[in-house]
């Protein structure tokens, strides 16, 4: 029995969680102060990076962002106030124009805030940002990721982030300063090209930080999964019936941003009541008494 449950648990991880890494290698920016997504060498930094749908793959519920630095980290004392936004975009690069108003930031008002005053965790060369609000990537558009570091002071120049190879156009914007904390709602716009070193200006880069997206897959929700659970009817307007070989402990219903809409629902004759849900698409999370869980996509009519 233990072997069976272990096999099911491994299957659950393979089916429902994925890690997608974009970029490879050990390239770093020659100017450590411009290292993205965060300039650890400066007191404040604001960056945006575009990651392409062709690099990401299917729809997923992004839980964490993992970046990589050149040297194993021993301590990070001045990166404890990090705000992060993620958004879908059709842009493949930033439309920068050399001028005092030429930096082509994608407004954070068009993105979802996924972390407020968060911290970085680190193990060896890996730096992880855990989102407080997961982001539901739709599997078709590109992603823009905005990282705003707001705590004064720096951790020296020992930790430049690994960067991808060059793209044709700018896929990164960054501004950093020891004295001025850039406002993501009203970011600096003085763009002077990729070679500027002034901290009052915005730099554009044809490369971006190597990134691993750690996510829960949304696209597997219709596959045969742990416990071989089936959901009928789907779409539904009032009740759905759940059939499975395992023993269900409770059921949660999440929106596509990973937020719980209904939780700890109990079954009544294998049915749950969804009448209070608004019309739309939801994720049904089935929690088993065996300590496992699985997800299914449902549509409320």
UniProtKB/TrEMBL annotation:
Matches recorded under Pfam families: Por_Secre_tail
Top-rank taxon, per record: Bacteria
InterPro entries: Secre_tail (IPR026444)
Keyword Signal: yes
Annotated Polar residues bias: 188-197
UniProt keyword Signal, yes or no: yes
Keywords in alphabetical order: Signal
Domain Secretion system C-terminal sorting span(s) in chain numbering: 233-299
Signal peptide extent: 1-22
Spans annotated as Disordered: 178-197
Family matches, as NCBIfam families: Por_Secre_tail
Protein known as: T9SS type A sorting domain-containing protein
The organism of origin for this protein: Chryseobacterium luquanense
């Amino acid at each position: 029995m233990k072997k069976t449950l272990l096999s099911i648990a491994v299957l659950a991880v393979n089916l429902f969680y994925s890690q997608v890494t974009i970029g490879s290698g050990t390239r770093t920016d020659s100017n450590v102060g411009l290292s993205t997504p965060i300039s650890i060498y400066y007191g404040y930094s604001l960056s945006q990076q575009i990651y392409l749908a062709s690099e990401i793959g299917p729809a997923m519920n992004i839980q964490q962002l993992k970046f990589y630095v050149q040297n194993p980290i021993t301590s990070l004392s001045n990166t404890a106030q990090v705000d992060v936004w993620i958004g879908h975009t059709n842009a493949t690069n930033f439309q920068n124009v050399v001028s005092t108003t030429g930096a082509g930031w994608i407004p954070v008002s068009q993105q979802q805030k996924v972390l407020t005053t968060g911290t970085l965790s680190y193990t060896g060369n890996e730096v992880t940002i855990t989102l407080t609000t997961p982001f539901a990537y739709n599997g078709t558009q590109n992603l823009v990721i905005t990282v705003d570091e707001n705590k004064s002071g720096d951790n020296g120049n020992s930790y430049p982030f690994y960067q991808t190879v060059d793209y044709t156009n700018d896929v990164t914007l960054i501004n950093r300063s020891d004295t001025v904390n850039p406002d993501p709602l009203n970011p600096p716009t003085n763009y002077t090209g990729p070679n500027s070193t002034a901290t009052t200006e915005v730099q554009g880069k044809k490369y971006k930080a190597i990134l691993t997206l750690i996510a829960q897959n949304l696209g597997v929700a219709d596959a045969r999964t742990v416990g071989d659970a089936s959901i009928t009817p789907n779409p539904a307007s009032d009740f759905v019936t759940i059939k499975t070989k395992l023993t269900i402990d409770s059921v949660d219903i999440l929106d596509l941003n990973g937020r719980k809409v209904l939780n700890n629902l109990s079954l009544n004759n294998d049915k749950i009541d969804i009448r209070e849900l608004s019309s739309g698409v939801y994720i049904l999370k089935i929690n088993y008494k065996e300590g496992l869980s699985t997800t299914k996509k449902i549509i409320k009519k």
